[in-house]
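ok here's the first one, seq then struct tokens
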Amino acid sequence: MLGSPHFIKADLYSAALDAPRIFIPIGATPVSAGFPSPAEDYAQRRLDINEYLIRNPVSTFFFTVKGDSMQEADIFEGDILVVDRSIEPAHGHIVVAFLNGERLVKRLSIRDGNVSLLAGNSEYPALTLKGENQLDIWGVAIGKFKRIPA
């Protein structure tokens, strides 16, 4: 491709459909991150993480993040991205892309006919698509899992 991104459309995969549904208790009131409020002793609802994060099971995949280029977008090494291939990539989306065969996670920028992949770390330059580059947008990040050190 000469300077033009190729947006890969979703393939149909049945493996995601076989994922078991797991319902986890969720509190009826949000947790305060400010001043303490009375705590809730029991959960009144249940949350299925698949329902919460996955809109299109056959086109959703998980990727473990390596590196620090997206830390200003709150994406850190070891996080697991939830990526949906059925979403049409647009300006501002965080995407998983292949640039000249290398898989990356970056913010997509489309301005005045120019396409760039932007890092979420000021130490990394923007990757602006030029005639000799091949860009395939694989999917759009819609969420992430993160472990909190205990």
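and now the second one, same deal
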Amino acid sequence: MVAETDLKALLKNLTPVASAEDYVFTTLPKANVSSELIAVAKGVFQESEGTTLIISATEAQRSALPFEGRFRCITCEVHSSLDAVGMTAAMSRALGDAGISANVVAAFYHDHIFVPADKVDLAVQVLQKLGL
């Protein structure tokens, strides 16, 4: 499957799908991150201040990890190229105009947007309108 780069095609075929599960962002000193936590994390990012984990709220509570806020992950099912220009900007602008914060993570096949859990339905509607 070839990754899409055309912005119009990307937005038309966005197909945003929301997770049923809540996620949280937490951070730990690099030395405190176990391989078990990395294995269950949705995302991991090394920063100079520590390791950020995107992890299910259930796992964070089970592991007594500190966090603020709950988010849902909206996966854009279109196979977007990492070289595509404008998709993140279009999604962020539309969500921002609707008063929804957006934390975007680009992976190899898809873009994933973490939005406040209580605004996930509105966020999906906003993203669906981008393809019209």
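notes on #2: The longest helix spans residues 87-97. Residues 73 and 114 are 5 Å apart (CA to CA).
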